Amino acid sequence: MLLRIGRIIIGRATGTYMNRWGIPDWLGKEVRARDKACIYCGTPMIEQMPLHGPRSAVATWEHIINDANIITRENIARCCAACNSSKGTKKLSDWLQSPYCKKRGINKGTVAEVIKAALSLGEFQDKRDKGDYAQDTFQRPL
Ligand SMILES: [Zn+2]
Asked: What is the Å distance from ligand 1's center to 39 Cα?
């Protein structure tokens, strides 16, 4: 009885339940349903760590942009353990140039839609940061 009351209070206080990566349940379910194959290499993933054999296909949580504070369906995805450990904290566009990706034929044309979207946003931000759009887009003379 006490335990049950405790759970209800916790649920109300936080509003939603999170997994240990701070991803709310509803978002975790949505992303799991979307990303059944690795978002990078396309390999079908397994949920459980196998007792024997390779673990490279185990599903892992991925922050596409390496910022644990960006918890959105655009930045949270599922990728295989092999891609996750290779990518590490590298910037997505840099990692796609790595020997790991080249060897496996992973590039911006082969990745999942959620990654393509992140890449095109990244390209826009890079150009904006370099000032490429400054003349014609942001500082149009009056
Ligand atoms: Zn992968």
From this structure: 7
d(CA 83, CA 112): 13
Give 142 Cα–ligand 1 centroid separation in angstroms. 49
pLDDT, the chain, mean:
83
Residue 141 lies in a domain: no
In tens, the pLDDT along 12-40 reads 344 567 777 789 999 999 999 999 999 99
Give distance in angstroms: CA of 93 to centre of ligand 1.
Answer: 16
Residue 98 belongs to a domain: yes
| Domain limits for position 104 | 25-129
Of 37, 39, 93, the closest CA to residue 66 belongs to 93
The reply to whether 102 falls in a domain is yes
134 within some domain:
no
Domain count across the chain: 1
Separation of alpha carbons 67 and 96, rounded Å: 18
Q: Rg for the chain (alpha carbons), in Å? A: 19
Cα–ligand 1 centroid distance for 73 (angstroms): 19
> pTM for the full model?
0.77
The pLDDT assigned to 10 comes to 37
* Low-confidence winner among 14-23, 46-55, 103-112 (lowest mean pLDDT): 14-23
